[in-house]
Prior knowledge:
Blueprint: H1 2-7, E1 19-23, H2 32-45, E2 57-61, H3 64-80, H4 85-95, E3 96-98, E4 115-117, H5 126-134
Parallel strand pairs: 1-2, 1-4, 2-3
Helix pairs in contact: 2-3, 3-4
Amino acid sequence: MEFILDLAGYDPANDLTSRTVIEPAVGQGAFLVPVVDRLLRCARAHGVDIAATETAISGFDIDPESVEAARSNVTETLLSGGVDRATATRLAQAWVREADSLKVAPDPPPSGSSETLLCTRRSIDRDDMASYRST
């Protein structure tokens, strides 16, 4: 997961709070947890209150059990990073929704947002994909 985020340029050294990551099938959060970790590190490094990042992640899943598991994993990641329980729970609820991503229009990007990241196989350069497959 980390390698895919690296390929997509989702680097905590950059201001990730001005981006929106769309995760169309969160499952239990295997991809989402590293996204949250990087977002949290970035927010700290750039002096952004993590509570203000409700639109930084837009994740969906149609399975209610997966949604609950993903929310739990996101909440635990935030708690481990020092975020208070109320904020962690609110962000997990905002970031992970029970819905069919093919039938839901994503929220409009936040004011001043520079980019939306939807990482798919087709969005990765062919040489980078070859490098990924070789690891």
